[in-house]
Give the backbone structure.
Amino acid sequence: MRSRSAPGRRLLAFVLCVGLTAAIFTAQRFIVSGEARTGPIATAGAQGAVVATRAFEAEVDRVDVASEIEVTGSSIGDAERVAANGVWVVVWTRVTALENTVHGIPAELRMADGVVYGERGWFRASLERATFSPAIPQRGAFVFEVPAERLDGPTLVLTHRPGYEQRLSSRVEIDLGGVAAEPGPDAVVLTEPEIDMGEASDASE
């Protein structure tokens, strides 16, 4: 039996190489990245609407922009007013745990250009520090300090990580719409989170 000629072997190797490359390319198109498989499951919505995940739901009803916040206490002291290095963005939100108790919900403010600002965490009245019992809505504020010139197309991002695990966390992303970068003339009074049953509470009165 004759052995294959050198040109024939080269052609066969080329065909096999092309076929293998095509197979790898096709397979990669259908492989979900590890981050996509285990990252937070996000639900998007807009201000004024209830945005729900499997762990909690959130509704933003107002956004205040101010140069000062009036507080009853903070981790930096008992000052009555705290000035911002830029502007304070105070996002008033109603949060309800759906199945299990949720101990704190980390909050971020993401701008249109992708830059993210974390909740300052200075203020004891921040909603980020609250504990949410199932089916009991709490209304309060998430507080962010942002350079005025960077306040563009903000989105509130709330993420619940059970046991500080990223795997299969729950996340809501709420578009805050056109928020004015110019602060209002008055300080925003930051109040403690409170139970807010909304329409159900009003109907019972």
User: Anything to note?
Assistant: Residues 1-31 form one domain. The helical segments are 6-29, 34-38, 199-203.
